[in-house]
Every structure is written in C-alpha cells, then in structure tokens.
Amino acid sequence: MDYRIQVKMKTALADTLAQLKNTIQRLNDLVESGLGQADIEALKEIPILVKALDKIDDPYQARAKYRKGFLKDWLAQKGFYTARAAETLKVDEKLLKAADYLAHNYFKLDNFFTELKWKQNIRRNFNFSDDSTAMPVILEWATMLQDSELIEMLINKQTSLYIDIAELAKATSFINGYWLEILLRSRISDWLRQNIDEVGSYDILSQVHVSKSDGKVSELDLLFMLNGKVFWFECKSGEIGKYYALFASHRQMLGLKFSQAIAVVIEPNAQIASNFRTRSGMQTFFSTDLKEQIEALLKLKTE
C-alpha cells in the first residue's frame, strides 16, 4: 500500500479515535450525573463519529483477501519452479512520479525520451532543444529524473537543455523500460485499493524468474490472480519483433487465453497490437491509456 495512503489512514483513524474517547468520557460523566437538555445535544455527536469511522478504509481488509502462495502453487502445477519473485506491488515514489508523468505527457516527451534513451545506452552527454511548446514539459520531467538520480546533471540554457548521463544501472534500467513495469504495478495497486470491497481474493508476483525441468529460465514481468483467475503482463518498450514467438510459447506453456495475456507497450500502435494478437495471442495495452484499460479488464472479473 502507498506510504502516503497509510499515513493518511493512520492520521484519520487516530483523530477519530481521540474524538470517540472524548465522547465516551463525556457519556460516562452524563450517566453518573443525570441527563439534561444540554447533555442530550452532546449525544448527537455519536452518529457523526460512527460515520467518520465508516469512512476510514480498513488497512487489514486487503490483507485478509491476499492469498499468498496461490500463484507459486499455480506455476508449480504448470511444471514451473519459481526461482525468484517479488510478492509486492510497491514501487519507489520518485520513480513512480517520473513514470506517471512520462505516460501522461508522452506525446510531448517523445522526441526527448528517444534521444535520452539512445544517449543513455551509449553513455554520452548531450544537448537538447525543441522549438515546440513541449520544452516546459521536458524541463519538468528532466528535473524529476535528476531528483531521482536518473540523470547526473541538468543545465537549463533557456533555449536548450544540457543532460549529463547518470552512470548508474538503475538509470539505464528505468529509461530502457523498467518505468513501464513501475507504472503497471501502480495502476494495478490503485485499482485493487479502490475496488477491494468487490474482490474475493488476489495474489501478485512481479519480476518472476521461473525454470522448467529442462533447466531453462524465463522471466515474467507480472502475474496477478483475481478471484481465482490468473493474468500475465509483459512490458516492452524497445525492440518488440523478437519477442512475439517467445511470448506465444510462454502463453501456451502457462495455458492462458487471449483475455488473460497482456503486452504493455508505450503508445497506441495498430500494427503492434495486431502482431501481438496474431503472433503471440495477447492483448495490447498502452502506457498512455493503462489506467482505463486495467479498469475495463479487471471490472469484468468482479461483477
């Protein structure tokens, strides 16, 4: 669960419990001294407090519906051994902010992002200028990257930006596509939190490394079980063509239908979506529309 949400929940709960304690103390005083008209007015606070308590999300509700181990058992039944996996949707808040901003403003950041990705991979600093209205958006995103140590240094030259590439593995990983995985985890986490009342059970595995009896190891970006149904997500932001056959093989080994296998790419592209459908048997979701697509996919499984 998002740290900020936890703090907000704890603060709201503490405030309401303090009010409740005070009201109970006053009730005790009233019982001991007898009730007058002013005292009766004080009793009207009780329904208000009850409503306040009802509005506080139960932090243990999601935990009670969490079926830890379901997906590992499910993989084992398919003949896979889970060598390593993260059993969480948690992400770094600064990285999420940068990923979310990129998805929301991708069409303005596209040229800069393409240049950044190329220069990151060849480890070369660069100047970037754009005559369009995109520069304020680019500057804001570049500042986020610097705050997250994803670029070493940013110099705003008014009409251009100078970018000093970060010599860090996490920078290369994020820029080359890990940002999509961060975005996906966040979107599913948000959906789960907002719809927990309708969820019967769930389990999650991300960055899953599995092996079969022949010793070959495969990596699956994210598996999500909702009410007993398993969904598999793969994020791809670079060269995609070489993965169509591999993903088709993975989907068949996992025994998943088209509706349960989802490829997440950066932007809407009809040709890529068609290729994933015909060559991999997978749906295609886009970072720019991911929130709405996740909601449409998972809503069907809770009705």
Account of the 3D structure:
The chain has 12 helices and 9 strands. It is α+β, with helices and mostly antiparallel strands and 303 residues long. The chain has 3 domains: 3-55; 61-90 and 176-299, Trna Endonuclease, Chain: A, domain 1 (3-Layer(aba) Sandwich); 93-171, 2-Layer Sandwich (Ribosomal Protein S8, Chain: A, domain 1). The strands form 2 sheets. It has a 6-stranded mixed β-sheet with strand order 1-5-6-7-8-9, sandwiched between helices. The protein has a 3-stranded antiparallel β-sheet with strand order 2-4-3, with helices on one face. α6 packs across α9, α9 (169-194) crosses α12 and α10 (244-254) crosses α11 (270-280). Residues 1-5 have low confidence and may be disordered.
Structural class: alpha+beta
Q: What's the story with the biggest beta sheet?
A: 6 strands, mixed
Order of helices and strands: HHHHHEHHEHEEHEEEHEHEH
Shape: globular
Question: What proportion strand?
Answer: 15-25%
Q: Please tell me how large the radius of gyration is.
A: 25 Å
Name the helicity range: 40-55%
Q: Kindly give the count of domains.
A: 3
CATH topology of the largest domain: Trna Endonuclease, Chain: A, domain 1
Between the first and last Cα atoms, what is the distance in angstroms? 24 Å
Biggest sheet, strands in spatial order? 1-5-6-7-8-9
* Total E-strand runs: 9
Q: Which blocks of ≥5 consecutive residues have pLDDT under 50?
A: 1-5
